[in-house]
Design goal:
Structural class of chain B: alpha/beta
Strand order of the largest sheet of chain B: 6-7-8-3-9-10-12-11
Strand content of chain C: under 5%
Helix content of chain B: 25-40%
Order of helices and strands of chain B: HEEEHEEHEHHHEHEHEEHHEE
Order of helices and strands of chain C: HHHHHHHHHHH
CATH class of the largest domain in chain B: Alpha Beta
Shape of chain B: globular
Largest sheet of chain C: none
Shape of chain C: globular
Helix content of chain C: over 70%
Bound molecules: adenosine-5'-triphosphate, adenosine-5'-diphosphate, iron/sulfur cluster, magnesium ion
CATH superfamily of chain C: MetI-like
Number of strands of chain C: 0
CATH architecture of the largest domain in chain B: 3-Layer(aba) Sandwich
Radius of gyration of chain C: 25 Å
CATH topology of the largest domain in chain B: Rossmann fold
Largest interface: A-B, 48 and 48 residues
Structural class of chain C: mainly alpha
Strand content of chain B: 15-25%
Distance between the termini of chain B: 56 Å
Oligomer: heterotrimer
CATH topology of chain C: MetI-like fold
Distance between the termini of chain C: 41 Å
CATH superfamily of the largest domain in chain B: P-loop containing nucleotide triphosphate hydrolases
Largest sheet of chain B: 8 strands, mixed
Number of domains of chain C: 1
Chain lengths: 336, 338, 308
């Protein structure tokens, strides 16, 4: 496989709250390959957004990146100055947020906001930037872009605003696009439009993409690789076919089991994972999933689960999977 | 006191014939604030002529995109807002002709569960007291009865009765939704409107709540109107499904047949736009779907409301409005193609 | 219709009414404890509360603990602290500063607390009415209050105090009237936003009547920010009251509150700066204390901040 564009090693982002330390992300490692789409899935509160914000270095107090490293190509992102980071954001790494309603500044026109980004990162003249803005708006499928440059965000529908945000994010043809639940606030027919657009643009630009979502349908439509998160940690990683066909981690299995599919009959069993996701404030050692896990063993409550390269092709972080893979334990290793 | 345990048994008409709920020609036009001083107030057509029946013990699904009038329909049926036109009949009682007092009595027959569990609960009242509140409103039982009854209903929805004096913020979304369901059920209504009851919940929790709802439906002989924008859930949960677009029903049929063979172009688009959690399913570039946005309900298109986005549009579509008509037994569509 | 399962029959009550009352008392007590814990997390608020308790005690017991009669000259005019055996010195007329501060506290607290509390009551009624009913009621009430609002608070109080006979009662009345529009606005805005919460609609769907909704749903959820705001106003109103007294519209000499002590001290500012500084300092500290208490209340009244 090719060089990773982004590699995250042992990332820990903690929030110091009055009630204790909330370990939103606690030892996360993964690589993003050039030109591929990595989907991060997990329930709300599992640390998906914090991961994205950590990569963008947008974590604010009481949150702090307490450990780990993030490298973008050969650059150590955590060692950059704020100024250098500003240069990178929106330029080499573009970000699209969940809520298209609040991510645009209501007092500036759509045109001004796109043009400003272009000028800030490329130093183009106003005219050049304007021409580029029109081109971008056309690219993201906004009809009659010239006329709409002077519109304000409130004059755009949710789907159109998300298109504008995508236009801003890709203005500088970034190497990495990070999209945090870009379609969660949208209707299905609009979601389909935006997903098609994102996939199109990603292919056109050849950039790598991190797509954060809680919707396994979106994962299956978009992902090359999938990272499943639970309570601030990775539980399973693999390419999209492996994760859907041969999931090994009990949480991934449960999650796939809980989705209701269109071709389910009315008599089919409604399955769910029992219990509730924990809030990772001062979490005890061991596996965070153990209270809900059907395969939990004694060791799960005392030792952090190991990384296991399974014979079926995924990487699962689980004691039971380790046992299943047998004593031979080919390719096992501890978390970095 | 005995009222508490007999529940709704003595009230209302029979349990047999005819639909439990019948909605005809329901219209709600909201007057918005005028833009200029001398402008006429714009009219927002939130619900624009909706008809449907719900049989006893069945579950009717209402699906459609955001703003198509699902919640407004729910509020109208419960008469939380006054309609512009139309009629709502519950168990042979004309809901819209009721006096204030009769309406209070009717509230015992129909209840609602909202989308966002946390904000539909009073943040400063213990969950137990909130479950007991409807009994208080209706003067049923004394304090002790209401307390016992609320504890019992906590258990009915799968929570421990020891949680009586917890506050909503101490609970997760799924637990709060159970509280909201208990509060809606404590009056033993016949009809329960569920307005996106699982949309705000995590995937792994959704099925827990859906299972509870199915279980309760059998236990309390409930009739459900289930509102959702998630077609997979509606299909799994509802006997019949109505598809709404811009305040109108464009198709209504048995869920199975609607999904197997959607007839209205909008229903077809809606179904093909859902990304399936299936590694062999369509990738993003082959997802179905529609061009353009939902038109504003302030100036809806003339003729067929869907004609601005319809791939099968014909000249007459922008001139005349198609009405619902039965094309197969139990399958109604509003489209000139059929 | 089937009966709910798990029911033990209607005669088998698990609790008597007395049991329930006891349990409710217990819950109330625990809520108070939790609220106190939330309050106590803010150390400044705790300090401010202790300080204010002392100040109030001093004011109440001023007749017994004051070393001298506050209206009688016992030392040299403008005597510095320590002279004539007066701990804080004498004022411009040679009266004991310490005793005058003790006694002045009574008046200052009175004109800080009473108008604020009274205005809050009136404002809650008006704001709730305007905000909940909306439409014409809102227009009528809020436009009338706007008229009052258009005048600066102090100017309005001057006008009212000028019409009536000067004195503490006048002072209290005029500050109350001037304060109502400020609090009523907050009450109205908060009421309007609480009214739109889904849980209000849920209560209506359950069969709640308007009085129930107002008292059990809107009032408890609207009151917290209002109480916090009012608390922080108390300190300010003490200063406003002194201003009015300074203009001869409030307290009449030889009685004094802290504010009038500050203005009296100006006559001897160069020679005896302490005569201005001590009461000024006390006003600042007490005002600060009230705003710290307000901060603490914000947490104590927020159910989310109460962690078990
Ligand atoms: N009180 C109101 N005043 C004015 N317009 C309203 C009011 N309530 C609803 N509307 C409008 O009526 C239309 C239908 O709203 P409704 O809430 O019924 O949609 P919905 O189908 O439930 O959508 P969602 O999926 O977003 O919940 C929308 O355009 C909405 O903005
Ligand atoms: N600014 C913040 N302050 C405190 N806690 C936070 C903050 N942002 C996120 N968290 C917590 O971190 C955890 C992970 O959050 P997030 O990454 O937003 O989850 P999601 O997977 O839903 O995107 C959650 O428990 C959340 O409450
Ligand atoms: S480590 Fe143990 S508890 Fe965690 S998922 Fe694996 S088997 Fe279950
Ligand atoms: S009536 Fe015409 S525009 Fe409307 S859905 Fe049918 S074909 Fe399309
Ligand atoms: Mg998130
Ligand atoms: Mg709705």
């Amino acid at each position: 496989m090719s060089e990773p564009v982004l590699s995250v090693r042992g990332l820990k982002t903690h929030f110091r709250l009055r009630t204790g330390t909330l370990k939103a992300v606690d030892g996360l490692s993964f690589e993003l390959q050039a030109g591929r789409v990595l989907c991060i899935v997990g329930e709300s509160g599992s640390g998906k957004s914090v991961t994205a914000q950590s990569i963008m270095r947008l974590i604010e107090l009481p949150g702090r990146i307490v450990d780990g490293d993030i490298s973008f190509r050969d650059q150590d992102l955590l060692a950059l100055t704020e100024h250098e980071m500003e240069d990178l954001r929106g330029n080499r790494i573009g970000m699209i947020f969940q809520d298209p309603m609040t991510s645009l500044n209501p007092v500036f026109t759509i045109g001004e906001q796109i043009v400003e980004t272009i000028i800030a990162h490329t130093g183009a003249s106003k005219e050049e930037a304007r021409a580029r803005a029109v081109e971008l708006m056309r690219l993201v499928g906004i009809p009659e872009p010239e006329g709409r440059l002077t519109d304000y965000p409130h004059q755009f529908s949710g789907g159109m605003r998300q298109r504008v945000l995508i236009a801003i994010a890709i203005a500088c043809e970034p190497d990495i696009l990070i999209a945090d639940e870009p379609t969660t606030a949208l209707d299905v027919t609009i979601q389909a439009q935006i997903l098609r657009l994102l996939s199109d643009i990603q292919k056109k630009l050849g950039s790598a993409m991190i797509l954060i979502t809680h919707d396994l349908g979106v994962v299956s439509a978009m992902a090359d690789d999938v990272l499943v998160m639970y309570s601030g940690r990775m539980v399973e990683y693999g390419d999209v076919k492996t994760i859907f066909r041969n999931p090994r981690h009990p949480y991934t299995l449960g999650l796939l089991d809980s989705i209701i599919k269109l071709d389910d009959s009315r008599e089919s069993e409604l399955r769910s994972i029992s219990g509730l996701p924990p809030i990772p404030i001062n979490p005890p050692p061991g596996c965070a999933f153990r209270d809900r896990c059907v395969k939990a063993m004694d060791v799960c409550g005392t030792q952090d689960p190991p990384w296991v390269e399974t014979a079926t092709g995924s990487t699962a972080v689980c004691h039971a999977v380790e046992a299943e893979e047998g004593a031979a334990g080919a390719g096992q290793g501890a978390a970095p | 006191m005995s009222d508490i345990t007999t529940g709704g048994a003595g009230r209302g008409a029979n349990g047999g014939e005819g639909p439990l709920l019948s909605v005809e020609g329901l219209v709600k036009h909201f007057k918005l604030d005028p833009k200029g001083l001398f402008d006429a107030p714009p009219i927002l057509r939130a619900v624009d002529g909706v008809d449907f029946d719900v049989m006893r013990g069945e579950t009717l699904g209402l699906v459609g995109e955001s703003g198509c009038g699902k919640s407004t329909t729910a509020r109208l049926v419960l008469r939380l807002i006054e309609p512009t036109a139309g009629s709502v009949t519950l168990d042979d009682v004309d809901v819209l002709a009721c006096s204030k007092k009769e309406l209070l009595a009717l509230r015992r027959e129909m209840q609602i569960v909202f989308q966002d569990p946390l904000s539909s609960l009073n943040p400063r009242m213990s969950v137990g007291n909130q479950i007991a509140e409807p009994l208080r409103f209706h003067g049923i039982g004394d304090k002790v009865d209401r307390f016992d009854r609320a504890r019992e209903f906590l258990e009915v929805v799968g929570l421990s009765s020891d949680y009586y004096d917890r506050l909503p913020h101490e609970f997760s979304g799924g637990q709060n939704q159970r509280v909201a369901i208990a509060r809606a059920l404590i009056l033993r209504p016949k009809l329960l409107i569920l307005d996106e009851p699982v949309s705000a919940l995590d995937v792994s929790i959704r099925a827990q709540i859906l299972r509870l709802l199915i279980d309760l439906q059998g236990r309390f002989q409930l009739t459900y109107v289930f509102i959702s924008h998630d077609l997979s859930v509606v299909k799994r949960f509802c006997n019949r499904t109505a598809v709404l677009y811009l305040g109108r029903i464009v198709e209504i049929a048995e869920s199975e047949s609607l999904y197997r063979e959607p007839l209205h172009p909008y229903s077809q688009a809606l179904i093909s736009a859902i990304p399936e959690a299936n590694p062999d399913g369509p990738r993003a570039d082959s997802l179905g779907g529609l061009e353009g946005d939902v038109p504003s309900p302030i100036s809806p298109p003339t003729g067929c409301p869907f004609h601005t986005r319809c791939p099968h549009r014909m000249p007459e579509c922008s001139e005349r409005t198609p009405v619902l008509k039965e094309v197969k037994p139990g399958h109604q569509v509003a489209c000139f193609l059929h | 219709m089937t009966d709910a399962p798990g029911l033990h029959g209607q005669s088998m009550r698990q609790r008597s009414a007395a049991d329930l009352r006891r349990e409710n008392l217990h819950i109330m007590w625990r809520t108070l404890t939790l609220a106190w814990h939330a309050y106590a997390k803010d150390k400044a608020a705790v300090g401010a509360l202790i300080f204010m308790i002392i100040v109030v005690l001093i004011a109440i017991f001023a007749p017994y603990i004051s070393p001298h009669d506050p209206t009688e000259a016992v030392g040299t005019r403008g005597g510095l602290p320590g002279t004539d055996g007066l701990l804080l010195g004498g004022d411009m007329d040679g009266r004991d500063m310490l005793s005058r501060l003790f006694w002045g506290g009574r008046v200052s607290l009175l004109i800080g607390v009473v108008p604020t509390v009274a205005a809050t009551f009136i404002a809650v009624v008006l704001g709730l009415f305007a905000g909940y009913i909306g439409g014409w009621a809102d227009q009528v009430v809020m436009r009338i209050l706007d008229v009052f609002f258009a005048f600066p608070l102090v100017l309005l109080a001057i006008v009212i105090a000028g019409i009536l006979d000067p004195g503490v009662a006048t002072l209290i009345l005029s500050i109350t009237v001037a304060l109502v529009p400020y609090i009523a606005r907050l009450v109205r805005t908060t009421t309007v936003s609480v009214k739109q919460e889904p849980y209000i609609e849920a209560a209506r769907a359950g069969g709640a009547t308007t009085p129930t909704i107002l008292t059990r749903y809107i009032l408890p959820n609207m009151l917290a920010p209002v109480i916090v705001y009012s608390t922080t106003l108390i300190g300010l109103m003490m200063v406003v009251g002194s201003g009015l007294s300074f203009l001869g519209l409030g307290i009449q000499p030889p009685d004094a509150d802290w504010g009038t002590m500050v203005s009296d001290g100006r006559a001897v500012l160069k020679r005896a700066p302490h005569a201005t500084a001590f009461p000024g300092f006390v006003i600042v500290i007490v005002s600060l204390a009230f705003s710290f208490i307000g901060d603490g209340l914000r947490d104590a009244l927020d159910p989310r901040a109460r962690v078990r």
